[in-house]
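User: Predict the structure for this protein chain, please.
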Amino acid sequence: MRAANQLVGRTLGELARHIKPGVSTVELNKIADTFIRDHGATPTFLGFPNPYGGPFPASICTSVNECVVHGVPREDQILKEGDVISIDCGTLLNGYNGDSAYTFPVGEISDEVRQLLRTTKESLYKAIEVAVHGNHVGDIGQTVQDYCEAQGYGIVRELTGHGIGKVMHEDPQVPNYGRRGNGPKLKEGMCIAIEPMITQGDRKIWLLPDKWSVVTRDNKFAAHYEHTIAIRKGKSEILSSFEEIETIVRI
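Assistant: Here is the predicted structure, written as structure tokens:
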């Protein structure tokens, strides 16, 4: 699990070098696909089944601006100054899954959008602090909800984090809202993906006709950060990594 997730972190770090105005999301997908395969893994998202339509057609999700998650790379989607792009990446390595996401600024972004990104990422780390043996899934959800709603942001409720292992999406679901003490109990050795999905305005979302891309109804920006962790006693272990990304990107 650690090896698969570290590879996701390196893939996102490689993508960080190419995210700039004028680059298409299809170009980023090609870079990620090549990098993952060159390191002996396969991209988990490519061909991932969809209950609402066909399989996912790319190796990463590229969600730009008002797209919260599951954005499909397109040749005609060209990044421009002031955009943000959430890239969600999954790898299958030696039978185990890695999963992580990071929202990147494209060039210079507004102070308001920068604060959205910072708050969302901070909420992820606050959630990880309470994701320890003996606590509950609800502790994670309330931590994210309290921190982000206090700053005026919306919490997407229709999409959640998840358990992860030999299968990409396992139980339990890990919502970004809830009540402490509620939900499944966290036990040492469990692996879960925590992924706050936070909106600049209203939390309501739409599913686009491609049956994948989820966007905010009010067209305001969204942010999405994700780590896969192993539940431990006292302090959990982050299996994925933002270290390579953050040698290049500063929010």
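The two ends are 28 Å apart (CA to CA).
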